[in-house]
């Protein structure tokens, strides 16, 4: 399963492609059923790493693809894996996956960054592709993802660690670079419905605002790496939940009908 030539061309030009309605109500039903347990669990019991907002609300839950059968199946879907393999030009493995929660009125900002801004320090080349599945309706009010079209072509920009804005250390691009590079007309809001899916390049500049809405904004992001791009040894290797050591290629698993 793959995309049309036009879709590949658009991805290469913009650094992302937003595919509407990739998942249907049955897929979403199965994912939603497992969510309460994934969000409410604790690491000591289930081994899933979680980040929290300053308020204590869950901000991120890592590795659902290892712990929940519907999420495991999702990262093996031909409609997702097919284009990712074609973009990579090789087999891929799961670098990591996370449910980004951004609860109503509590979910906080993600500052502008390129994922490869920090993944470079994990000892890999920029051959990673991320796929974000909307689990809730994403709107401008609830802090939908924003991307800067074409920014992947800038290549990696310098990043610094922001430790004050949220509960969570964020690698982000500094303001002078943003002022120099970002044009207002290139900022796109990835607003959509549950089941819509964004594919994006690891050098695409992206971020999102605070959730100012009564609607929660849950998404699932899975990042794939080229099987030929496993990390070189680095001084400070990060844990397996964020830099997976499970390097085996993901095999296709067509959805059950
Ligand atoms: C991310 O960059 O991983 C998160 C962005 C978001 O969920 O808004
Ligand atoms: Mn990111």
Unreliable stretches (pLDDT < 50, length at least 5) are: none
What strand line-up does the widest sheet have?
Answer: 1-11-6-13-4-3-2
Bound molecules: succinic acid, manganese (II) ion
Instruction: Estimate percent helicity.
Output: 10-25%
> Number of helix segments?
8
In short:
With 257 residues, the protein is α+β, with helices and mostly antiparallel strands. It is 25% helix and 24% strand.
Model description:
Helix content is 25%, strand content 24%. It starts with a helix and ends in a 31-residue tail after the last strand. By secondary structure, it is α+β, with helices and mostly antiparallel strands.
Q: What keyword list fits this structure?
A:
alpha+beta, 24% strand, 257 residues, binds succinic acid
